[in-house]
Amino acid sequence: MAGCVARRALAVGSRWWARSLTGARGPRPLCVAGGAGAFPPAATATTRRHLSSRNRPEGKVLETVGVFEVPKQNGKYETGQLFLHSVFGYRGVVLFPWQARLYDRDVASAAPEKAENPAGHGSKEVKGKTHTYYQVLIDARDCPHISQRSQTEAVTFLANHDDSRALYAIPGLDYVSHEDILPYTSTDQVPIQHELFERFLLYDQTKAPPFVARETLRAWQEKNHPWLELSDVHRETTENIRVTVIPFYMGMREAQNSHVYWWRYCIRLENLDSDVVQLRERHWRIFSLSGTLETVRGRGVVGREPVLSKEQPAFQYSSHVSLQASSGHMWGTFRFERPDGSHFDVRIPPFSLESNKDEKTPPSGLHW
């Protein structure tokens, strides 16, 4: 079939994208369907010889937004790289990379599990490996289409005033793993709609990618480095449900003559199987260096009980925890329900809550 034109619909999250492949090395335009729910969702790329009008609702038009590039197997993406998120389907742009340590319990050494440790849970030897993540901006046009599967205001900070519990968020800021990046190029000088895009990036057609960091981006990154930094990633799979946890230290506040340390943690749930399951309950154990052990049980997460299916296999959210000690540990389980009503527990990989030893002034928002 050499020389023929094949069309491929890439369905991710609740958005459908289409690209056409012209020959083996020809251009591959990236198209986006306008309007919410333009197509029924699907989880994987499906090859189609033709993409006819019957494959999409009447009145919905695919608009070309760029041309796909070959994903990088080695090396990092540069500041200004445009991409499509392979799981949640949104358009975004890379701001800068983070080098994290990935602790994957699925590939842990075959050493036998250790006895119960002082934190109250069993552990096995897990060696971390370096893994690249990226700080990115999400295109505001895509936020309504992913809000049911991934929070678009998940990167939060402690506010700079007397209320020790006050938080603020930067909408459309996210962390993306290297393998979730589907890179593309665009001739549009402002291809991503986000209030910070033109404040952080400058168009320079002589560069590749043609968007370079402004001084404001470098200053913002340096100023907020302790609160943005992604250092550890924890992952574990139980019965084909993979749980990934990324903790972030947020800072310390004084409350009622004591110090309160805050962390946020981002959790991604992925169904690696074709069976439909629904998250019903969460069970957390939180150990503090002060010696306290707290148990938290509840329905769902962040007020939701997400369904993970072949069509929509992933859900991502962020939450917060505070301790009256500078460090601690968290672990637990999520209880899922199958269509036949049976339940099973999925392990949440244990992770540390560590404070920054050289804590500086907390972030002060977007003021430079």
Automatic annotation (TrEMBL):
GO terms for biological process: DNA repair; error-free translesion synthesis. The keyword Transmembrane does not apply. It is found in: Mitochondrion matrix; Nucleus. Keywords: DNA damage, DNA repair, Mitochondrion, Nucleus, Phosphoprotein, Transit peptide. Transmembrane segments: none annotated. One of its GO terms (molecular function) is DNA binding. Its main location: mitochondrion. SMART domains: YccV-like. Residues 235-360 form the ApaG domain. PROSITE patterns: APAG (PS51087). One of its GO terms (cellular component) is mitochondrial nucleoid. InterPro entries: ApaG_domain (IPR007474), ApaG_sf (IPR036767), Hemimethylated_DNA-bd_dom (IPR011722), Hemimethylated_DNA-bd_sf (IPR036623). Interacts with PCNA and POLD2. Interacts with SSBP1. Interacts with PRIMPOL; leading to enhance DNA polymerase activity of PRIMPOL. Interacts with POLH. Interacts with POLD1; leading to stimulate DNA polymerase activity of POLD1. PANTHER family: F-BOX ONLY PROTEIN 3, POLYMERASE DELTA-INTERACTING PROTEIN 2. Involved in DNA damage tolerance by regulating translesion synthesis (TLS) of templates carrying DNA damage lesions such as 8oxoG and abasic sites. May act by stimulating activity of DNA polymerases involved in TLS, such as PRIMPOL and polymerase delta (POLD1). This is Polymerase delta-interacting protein 2. It comes from Nyctereutes procyonoides (Raccoon dog).
